[in-house]
Amino acid sequence: MSLFRTAIRVAAVAALMNATSAKERVFDSRVTPLDEGQEYPIILVSTENEPATKLDASPTRYMREANLVTNLIVSYVPEKEDSVFDIERKLAAKLDLVAHELERAMTVDPFLGKTLALELELSSFDPEFDTDGEVPKGGARIAWKASFTEELPDTSESALVPFNRAHIETDGKVGDSTASGVDDVELPQ
Q: Which alpha helices (H) appear in the chain, and where do they start and end?
């Protein structure tokens, strides 16, 4: 299991903290930390499936693509004269604004790209709205592909050691002209 996913999430949370209208309401979690008095917007950062392709056998290296997901939730307190259309339009505008802030923060933060040695690419934006209830909410699942190479440590015990001496034993059974014997030969370096 790669600890790189954890590093990517921590770096994403750091890049988003106080960089959007969500301010400090950025969480490294797949579980929505909502309660009755939750302030919005909030951002939830998680990693999902991670396809891997083996690049080399020795040492073992993989090209990995962690699917980083930033879930954004915004709310809108409707005014008395707002129609359902007005509520949806205002929620969409608020969602687009905070999503723009989020995408900008994710792509300009140097820690995400340079320090973690990964390539970060926006892969999808999926908005959703719930206008039922006292406080209508809008959300977006913004997915990113974080590509990186990982080299696994060599755990084999077959590491080559310097080959300075050869031990040779013959048993005399290969044809009649071979005599049996034992010899140690120093090899030239």
A: 4-16, 84-108, 110
